[in-house]
Amino acid sequence: MQDNSFDISNRRYIGSKAKLIKWIFENLNLENIESICDIFAGSGVIASNFTKKPQIKNIILNDLLCSNELIYSAFFLGQNINFKPLLELTNLFNNKLDLKPNYFSDNFSDKFFSYNDCLKIGSIREYIAFLQIDDISKNILLASLIYSMDKIANTVGHYEAYRKSHIPQDKFVFKLIKPIKHNKTIQIYRQNANNLAKEIKADLIFIDPPYNSRQYSRFYHIYENLVEWKKPKLSGIALKPIANNMSEYCRSNASKELENLIANLKCKKIALTYNNTYNSKSKSSQNKISFSEIENILKQKGKVTIKEKKHNYFNTGKTKFNDHKEYLFIVEVK
After folding, report:
1. Share of the chain residues as helix, strand and coil, in percent rounded to the nearest 5
2. To bridge 140 with a disulfide, which of 74, 221, 270, 331 should be the other Cys (CB 3.0-4.6 Å)?
3. Other residues' Cβ atoms within 10 Å of the Cβ of residue 77
């Protein structure tokens, strides 16, 4: 394993709770909690922290994005994989790979990445596509490619746009991710959370839904494109494919979606995080569910305790958020 390999928290991700983990877990009483479900798992950092808790035996992760599902597989299921051939491939990718024009260089050059870096990224992706290896090893390589791209991308943390004032430089280096060592039973899903809620049960269900109208599948369309590798036709300044995997939590009926989700949960405890970006000047940044709506929906399920913390919001644009706070709603289910 490389000394400088990527941990699961080493990528930029909108709404990531990486900087809030200590506060969240200080306020979570895990007594009599042996199973958890992170039903909007996002970056995966919350679920990764549950692997450190000895009393937790079963962990369920779910997300709509293909790229996140793959990343969970790599980090949570990859601990027993033989890394020797992956290290050999790392050396090949960085030093000896035959680089040819490809789908990636044809579309994304000198926008999100330099032309030479796009040659490398696309050539590596083509090489991985034809490798005859087990699925988890392939997922580790693809997750590593995503993390290596994120490290140098000419963006502010997503692919809704690229920084036009910057000229991308040749900086790409392929590095491997470091799978999480644990002794838990892991289940990974890529489903609509409201549908999955009807199928699973867990002692604690952690909920961190999208907050506003910005769709994650559009923010991270390049990673979705890279993972699926169907090479679709692209359009617009951000070079997006046709919309897919769109969340109802980013639309006007978000509160109804949350109400339906909570009603169908089978658990002892619920933990829900949300922030107070209600007064943003940008409509796309304004929260879709009000504080009172969340509180009233959760009260139907049990006793609600609310914690709050001042937090610097991961803002990917120029919108200013004053007095930004993160809320943690904890429900003891009746």
Report:
1. 35, 15, 50
2. 74
3. 17
Question: Are residues 131 and 88 in contact, defined by beta-carbon separation less than 8 angstroms?
Answer: no
Cα–Cα distance, 161 to 163 (Å, whole number): 7
Q: Is 234 exposed, middle or buried (0-12, 13-18, 19+ CB in 10 A)?
A: middle
Residue 146's CB is within 10 A of a number of other CB atoms, namely 24
In contact, 204 and 32? CB cutoff 8 Å:
no
CA-nearest of 20, 58, 9, 51 to 205 is 58
Residue listed under structure tokens 């959760």? 298
Query: In what helix (H) or strand (E) does residue 193 lie, and over which residues does it extend?
Result: helix 193-196
Give the pLDDT band of residue 23 (cuts 50, 70, 90): very high
Give per-residue pLDDT as tens, 139-175.
999 999 999 999 999 987 899 888 877 778 999 999 9
β-bridge pairing 325-333 and 269-275: antiparallel
Q: What angle do CA 205, 304, 50 make, to 5 degrees?
A: 30
pTM, two decimal places: 0.92
